[in-house]
Amino acid sequence: MADNALGYYEYHILDTLYFGDHRCIQVQFDPLNFGNNTFKGFMWIADTVYALKSVVMHMDKNANINFVDKFEISQFFEAENQKKFFPEKNILYVDLTVPALKKAGLIAKKTTLYDDAILNNKSIDTAFDKKPVDATALVNDTSNWEAIRREP
Length: 152
What we know:
Helix content: under 10%
Order of helices and strands: EEEEEEEH
Structural class: mainly beta
Distance between the termini: 32 Å
Radius of gyration: 20 Å
Strand order of the largest sheet: 1-2-3-4-5-6-7
Number of strands: 7
Strand content: over 45%
């Protein structure tokens, strides 16, 4: 949370629940001022380390953003150890209206899954020290795709 978050949102504690070894507090947040382009939703915070476990937020219905009818972000974090939480899953959902099409619109959903985070690995290339990659190495056989997918 930002240092000035209390100037934009009001917070309410709704619930507590255990996720594995972590006792988490559910906090609901709503825009403080009517008409601000802000989000509303809830988040789960691990109470011992104050780490964000998950957040689900959507654009306030009073926000006025061109062509956007609905905008929602869901983020989930997993504990690597007792003190560090890493992204596990991000979901972005956007419902757009195209004025030229009158009744037609567009719904976009993007899901990003993270797995096997590596910390303090000195052998990872830096942005300035990239090696050329053979393009044929990027072509994958899709026959076993269903077996290796983490989520359908």
